[in-house]
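Slide 14.
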Amino acid sequence: MTTALASADRPASAADSAPSTSIGPRAAFAWRAVGVVVAVKLAVNLLFAGRYGWHRDELYYADAGRHLMLGYVDFPAVTPWLAALSRTVFGWSSLVGLRTVASLAGAGVILVTAAVARDLGGGRRAQLIAAIAVAPLVVGSNAMFQTVSFDQLGWALTIWATVGVLRRGTVHSWAWLGAAAGLAWNTKYTVVVLFAGLALGFVGTKAGRQRLRGQGPAIALAVLAIAALPNLWWQARHGWPSVDFFTSRGEVRDENPPLRFALELILIAGPAALLLWLSGLRALVRDAATRPLGVALVVVAPTCLLLGGKSYYAAPMVTGAFAAGGVAWERAMTRASTDRRGAGRWWIWPAVIAGTAALASPLILPVLPTSTMVDLGLTDMRDDYGAQLGWPEVAATVGAEWQSLPASARAETAIVAGSYGFAGAIERFGGSWDLPSPVSGHLTWRYWAPAPRTLAATRAIVVGLPEAFVARHCAAHRRIATVDNRWGVDNEERGAAIWSCSLPGTIGDLRPELVRHVPG
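Slide 15: predicted structure.
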């Protein structure tokens, strides 16, 4: 399977020093086989896209899509802009529309993973195996509209572009790597771990250093810088809030010890596919030509763990590992078939991966009715499910209190939300009670200016803030309700208090204190 890189693909300055490689010639893309995987994935996601309800993060991203900016406190701009696109295409209230956008991103991940396998020298079977292996990962991610879906696509495109650089090393391939990296940066900041791994892989290996010759790397960095500049300008203009946010999250490290991190990463990527992506990493590192990428992917998980990140931050690296694993599996089956051992058995592994994913489907996406899911206790196993319950009840409780006020009292009353989830629920479901837009200082909500009438209000209905805060900032207060959900699920919001508050000043005076308060 060893071939020389085509000299026509080499940069002129490195024609005599390009590394030898076992990357095989590019086969045709397996559109029909991979297309079936994509079609099944989209059908499954869209069939259950409306179940369980809005996740707190989906409420937040949808609100961010109504306030388009070049940056946000805890994520870059791509996800809110896609939320705005969904609103334009599907309407303001369409949860299915939002999740359709996420599902399309997952379809792109499958296609790109198969393309990586093809560019690593894989044929139709390698591409199909890679596509099937990555499908459960994206099906689970795309069950909700979150940054993770687009983050996975950004990583996959960056890995694909890296393979292009390793195959060809042309200025054009380096420019594509810069563009892919720029898209990934504007999707989720955790991609810097992949960037650091690629830097180590290129600098620390012979093949990588050979590819660093010429103008290509400088062009890639220039393209990345241009793509990142708007976001960096926003960060600088607002005092680098994302840096403050990520450096102050010590509890994430405490909640993710090494064993839990490793087990969760295996579960996210799929236990049945563990050997496939480990064999893919091994193949990438062993091949001198692909070693820069192999080193980059190998160091991702340890780096995320060391920095105190969550396991799913590292999960997108398996797109490249699955692609390489598919190629290794195809070659192993080819060798086995030549001596009549294992002939025709190439399909066993992808069948096992698909079968185990089907068995685990209640934990991957909302296939079960809400009542059944709650009765089985799946909210204890996947807290994302619990985070989708109870938001209409929050708005209804606040709405009942709002409607009980005389019109004159409503004119001088605002609604204050302690978190983006409560704020998003009131914004999303408050129309039936004619609720005004809430005020919140949580994360990026602090940058969205309330209406002048709201800032002048001297009374408030306060949702989800602790009594210590309310007692300190209200001239008088009383607890009027407690947040609950009809399923009785103990999510993060259940048990929070709703207060009636008379202010010594105005909401405008209170707002700086809301910004300084960190939800517990």
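Speaker note: The longest strand covers residues 476-482.
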